[in-house]
Amino acid sequence: MKYTVTVGGRAFEIEVDHDRLVRVNGQSLYVELEQFSGLPLYTLALDDEGFIVFVEEGLDDYRVEVEGEVYPVEVQRMRPQLAARQVECDSGTECFVICAPLAGNLLSLQAVVGQEVEARQPLAVVESMKMRMEIKAPEAGIVEEVHGSPGRMVRQGEELVTLRRKR
Predict the structure, then answer these.
(1) Model pTM greater than 0.70?
(2) HSE (CB half, 13 Å, CA atoms) of 138?
């Protein structure tokens, strides 16, 4: 999951790979965050450093206190985009490959080779950090190829289904 986080007017791109691995502007960090008894007080471990953090949640932002310094923080979730790229099929017709918009567990693939699909028809479901994303056909077409099978981990951008455009 990707976020844009603005701290004190400075923007950071944060990508959460899994529970403890986080990338901040491309730099990998191991993070542990634990809340005290439902209070707005947390312990934060970043690689080998530890902090006590107080978080005050506002309507659209946060105030975060670390070591006596207060930082205004805004968090904007970056919505994953359906990744599809045009390719030429073996038959010489126009196809496009639909890729996983985020890394996660491929829960299902509802596409079958030769199947006709309508625009917005569900093709697959990927789960990442307990969030399920249904991947739908961007337009009508015929399933040319299904890449792999469900029940496995997929990387962001990994090919899932190739569709041939309906003529």
Answers:
(1) no
(2) 16
